[in-house]
Amino acid sequence: MNNSTLAFIGGGNMACALINGLIEDGTAPQDILVAEPDEQRREQLAVQFGIRTVDDNTLAAREADILILAVKPQVLKEVATAIAPALAQGTPLCLSIAAGIRHASLQRWLGKDVPLVRVMPNTPAMLGAGASGLYAPESISEAQRSTAEHIMRATGIAIWLNDEAQMDVLTAVSGSGPAYFFLFMEAMENSARKLGLTEKTAHLLVLQTALGAARMALESTTSLADLRKSVTSPGGTTEKAIGAFQEQGLEQLVDKALTAARDRSVEMSASLGEEE
Ligand SMILES: NC(=O)c1ccc[n+]([C@@H]2O[C@H](COP(=O)([O-])OP(=O)(O)OC[C@H]3O[C@@H](n4cnc5c(N)ncnc54)[C@H](OP(=O)(O)O)[C@@H]3O)[C@@H](O)[C@H]2O)c1
Questions:
Q1: Is 72 in the pocket of ligand 1 (CB under 6 A)?
Q2: Is the pTM of this model over 0.90?
Q3: 208 lies in which domain range?
C-alpha cells in the first residue's frame, strides 16, 4: 500500500476512525486524501492528521488507488453515480462502509468493472477496538482482499464473510451489538444503585466487570459456557442470579432480539437498493 493514494469520500466519524488507525499503523498522512463538502470539517481533518482534503469527489476518485466510500447510505447512490465516469478511467479498488447497501446495488451505481469490497464496521472502531465484516465476490483478487483487510485491521479485527446474506447477521451482532451491552450495563448499574451503591461506584464496577469478562473470554481457549460454569459455585450467589435470568428466558429473548435486528437489516437493504 506504500505510496498508494487512499482517498475517502466523506470525512465523518467512521472515516476519522479509519484515518486515525491507518496513520498509527504507518500510512503516510500525505498519501491520504479526503473529499468532504464541509469546509470546517476539511480544515479540522487537515490540522488533526496532516492529510490532504478537497471539496470535489470526482477529483478524489480520479486520484485514488484505493477509494473508501464513507458517506451516509442515504446519499451513496447520488455520490456513486456522480463519480462513476471518473472510476471508469482509473478503476481503483473501492471499499464501501455504508450500512445496508448491498454489493450488487453499489456495483450497479459505480459501474460493473469497478473492483468493490463491502465492509461493515462498528463504533468501537473509533478506539481501535472495532469488529468489521468484509464481503467481496470471487472476482476480487487475493491482493485486493489483503489490501481491504489491512485497511480495516487498522481499527480492530476484520472478518471475511463468504455469503453476503451473513452481512445482515453481522449487522445484528457486531453492528448493533455495542448498544445491547450498553443496555445490559445500564440495567446492572441501575440495580446496583437501587441496592445501595453510589452512582460512581456502581458505574465503575459494572464497566470494569464487563471489560474484565470480555478480556477473560478473549484470552482464554475455554468456551463461554465453561467460563460461566467456572464462576458459578453450586448454591452460591452467581447461581441464584443466573437461575433468575434463565427462568425469565434470557437466551430466548436474546435470540428474538438478534433475529429482529437481522430482519430489519434485510428490509432496510432492500429499500435502500431498490431504486435503479
Ligand atoms: N458510525 C458507525 O458506527 C458506523 C458503523 C457501520 C457503518 N457505518 C457507515 O459509515 C458511513 C459513514 O458514517 P459516519 O457515522 O461516519 O457518518 P458521518 O459522520 O455523517 O460522515 C459522513 C460524512 O460524509 C459527508 N458527506 C455528506 N454528503 C457528502 C457528499 N455528497 N460527498 C462527500 N461527502 C459527503 C458528511 O458531511 P456533512 O456532515 O457536511 O453532511 C459527513 O462528514 C455510513 O454509510 C454508515 O452507514 C458507520
A1: yes
A2: yes
A3: 177-265
Ligand 1 in contact with 41 (CB < 6 A)? yes
Probe residue for ligand 1, chosen from 8, 9, 14, 265 as the CB with the greatest number of ligand atoms within 8 Å: 14
Is 202 part of a structural domain of the chain? Answer: yes
Q: Alpha-carbon torsion 31, 34, 35, 40, what sign? A: negative
Letter for the amino acid at 24?
A: E
Whether 13 and 150 share a structural domain: yes
| Percent of the chain whose predicted confidence (pLDDT) is above 70 | 98
Contact 68, 9 (CB under 8 A): yes
Answer yes or no: is the C-beta of 16 below 6 A from any ligand 1 atom.
Answer: no
Q: What domain count does the chain have?
A: 2
CATH code of the domain in which 66 resides:
3.40.50.720
> CB–CB of 101/73 below 8 Å?
yes
C-alpha 95 to ligand 1 mean position (Å): 14
Q: Is 123 in the pocket of ligand 1 (CB under 6 A)?
A: yes
Neighbours of 148 (CB within 10 A): 27
Model confidence over 28-74: pLDDT tens digits?
999 999 999 999 999 999 999 999 999 999 999 999 999 999 999 99
Residue 272 covered by a domain:
no
CA of 226 to the centre of ligand 1 (A): 41
Q: What's the gap in Å between 11 CA and the centre of ligand 1?
A: 7
Of 86-90, 123-127, 201-205, 233-237, the poorest mean pLDDT is in: 86-90
Order of all β-strands in the sheet with 52-54: 52-54, 32-35, 6-9, 66-69, 93-96, 116-120, 130-135, 156-160
